[in-house]
Amino acid sequence: NAGVTQTPKFQVLKTGQSMTLQCAQDMNHNSMYWYRQDPGMGLRLIYYSASEGTTDKGEVPNGYNVSRLNKREFSLRLESAAPSQTSVYFCASSGNRDSTDTQYFGPGTRLTVL
Amino acid sequence: GNSVTQMEGPVTLSEEAFLTINCTYTATGYPSLFWYVQYPGEGLQLLLKATKADDKGSNKGFEATYRKETTSFHLEKGSVQVSDSAVYFCALSHGANNLFFGTGTRLTVIP
Questions:
Q1: Which of A33, A44, A104, B109 shows the greatest Cβ crowding within 10 Å of its Cβ?
Q2: Angstrom distance (rounded) from CA B57 to CA B65
């Protein structure tokens, strides 16, 4: 099992460019999440998908869109990148939305917006 | 609302020293509590968790006890190794499994 995979690992964008971060999990999990990690701030939830076909906003959704393509895949899109979106992005998945359930994280995508 | 406060770092210890990283939380009701670890260049992985008051989570020599009376979930290890050098995150989950993270504590263990 690969667990949670993310592509790309690194990306540099210019202000105003768009891109999509890809995430896939092979654990047959129902729920998937996108976080961003900034220095001194821990991880913050951008969007989540409780199950296939549903998505909801997290704590910091502005400037992002998501698509739950199928049960395995959950993508994050930046339509017009801004320097404030320079961050490390992590995708995660869990079996369900129960508060006791463990979330499994991918290796991250380091994004720099110039 | 939900929030987690953890000890500011960085923390530098000699090998075999005792480790404590403090974590306190604010939440309504009864959250689940987690410690995640992030090794250099990697994603987060679960270290241990506790889902109800007085539960003790343990893994790889690390322990933490869910203390509802003090709203705390401090991480401890009796004898750290160089391989424990990483960033440690305390987190809580309440209701619908949205995780709320502390800011992270960087631990460096020197031989």
A1: A33
A2: 6
pLDDT at A37 over 90: yes
B40 inside 8 A of chain A by CB: no
> Alpha helices of B1-69 — where are they, by DSSP H?
none
The partner residue sitting opposite A42, judged by closest CB among B43, B89, B97, is: B89
Q: Could you tell me if B99 and A103 are in contact, meaning their C-beta atoms sit under 8 angstroms apart?
A: yes
Distance between CA A43 and CA A35 in Å, rounded? 6
**Residue matched to tokens 């979930």:** B73
Question: Is residue B57 within 8 angstroms of chain A, CB to CB?
Answer: no
- Asked if residues A4 and A108 have their Cβ atoms less than 8 Å apart, the reply is no
Neighbouring C-beta atoms of residue A88, cutoff 10 Å: 16
> Looking at the DSSP assignment, which residues form a beta bridge with residue A95?
none
Residue with tokens 């995660």: A92
Q: What is the pLDDT of residue A44?
A: 93
